[in-house]
Amino acid sequence: MADISNNVRRLRRQRDMSQAQLADRLGVTRQTVSGWERGLTYPDLPMLEKLGQVFDTDLNGLLYPESRGEGRRREEPLRARFIPLSMVIYTVLLLVGGAVLKGFTPGYELLIIWGLILLAGLVVLCAYRISGQLAHRGTGEE
User: Is-contact 122 92, C-beta < 8 A?
Assistant: First the structure.
């Protein structure tokens, strides 16, 4: 919802409008517009449609400026094949590393350590990808 606040402010400024001018065009008070821009309140759906008409944009332009080529680049969604592909790479690295390590040391202790290191790396990689997706959705940065 923070994107709405930033987008209303940004679109209003792009059109050299004051909060009072925007409020007059929408039939609301200047304080209402100020509340939207500060993220204290949010416009309802009919008001979002009016805002879209005033700013000559669709609802996606108000909610997700990246979809219209504005703002920062939108990250690609976490694909369903990312984790299975990561598991295949993990398995290959485990087998290749295990074959190499088996030639150097007797026993499987080093192989177990190698597997745990790879597993930790896989967990960190997946957590990084997932947290990046969540952070993208949760920020209101322009």
Answer: no
Mean of pLDDT over the chain: 76
80 three-state secondary structure: coil
- Name the one residue in this structure whose structure tokens are 């332009």: 61
Q: Burial-class residue 25 by CB neighbours within 10 Å (0-12, 13-18, 19+).
A: middle
Q: Name residue, tokens 């792009």.
A: 14
Question: What is the pLDDT, as a whole number, of residue 142?
Answer: 37
Q: The pTM is what?
A: 0.46
Q: Which amino acid is at 39?
A: G
The C-alpha atoms of residue 71 and residue 141 are separated, in whole angstroms, by: 9
Q: Under CATH, what is the fold of the domain 2-68?
A: 434 Repressor (Amino-terminal Domain) (1.10.260)
Reply yes or no on whether the pLDDT at 71 is more than 60.
no
**33-53 exposure pattern, b = at least 16 Cβ within 10 A, e = fewer:** bebbbebeeebeeeebebbbe
In the chain, where the domains are located: 2-68, 82-138
CA angle 23, 142, 10 (to 5 degrees): 25
